[in-house]
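dude i think i finally got it to work??
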Amino acid sequence: MHITQLNRECLLHLFSFLDKNSRKNLSETCHKLLEVFQDPLLWSLLNFHSPVELKKDNFLLGPALKYLSICWYSERVKVCNIEDWMKNSFQKDFCNRHENTVSDFLLDVCNRCPNLLSLTLSGCGHVTDDCILQVLKNCPNLKSLKLENCVRITDRTLEAVTLHGGSLRTLHVDFCRNITQAGLERVRQKCPSVMLRAERSANMIPDSKPEKKLMLEKASRKLVQL
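look at this
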């Protein structure tokens, strides 16, 4: 029996076991399998593990998407979570090349995936409060927001949760060093039904202000001279 003789339901079930690249490759073999690849039912969940994956054409974004995860764990990605004033020229160049990758992708999600229920971001050092605000506004059914080691996230995201996270039930802001205890307390007071977790966030050293950075740079130069 040839694979194309299977009915639509069986083909969708088969495709569901394949990764994005395998689905794309299989869809290029015939028109029937291409139609299965393009079926929204196949794309309710998306997981990404590198910046390159976000720019490929081996997946579909649409109203069927409910669960989205973008988790970067490579050593290179960790560079983006270092304060800018501490980066060398190579690290700055690497960050500049994909600074807007996740933000642009999430903007696309805001425009095309209004039924999103869960968003997980880990190691996304360039994602900003404005980006999360747009997600909360455009995805009113969002129930779970998990942010880990997203260093540009501040109390503005927590404020956005209190204003636009009416459906939210789970909020994680782990290892987000620019979030404060005061911001967390506001969420607890205004959104008592939200399960809030903030491992290490309010206890980490926040990014230094520009004048403090300058002082640290001068002190560092003196140490080198000594």
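Residues 175 and 201 are 5 Å apart (CA to CA).
im so relieved honestly
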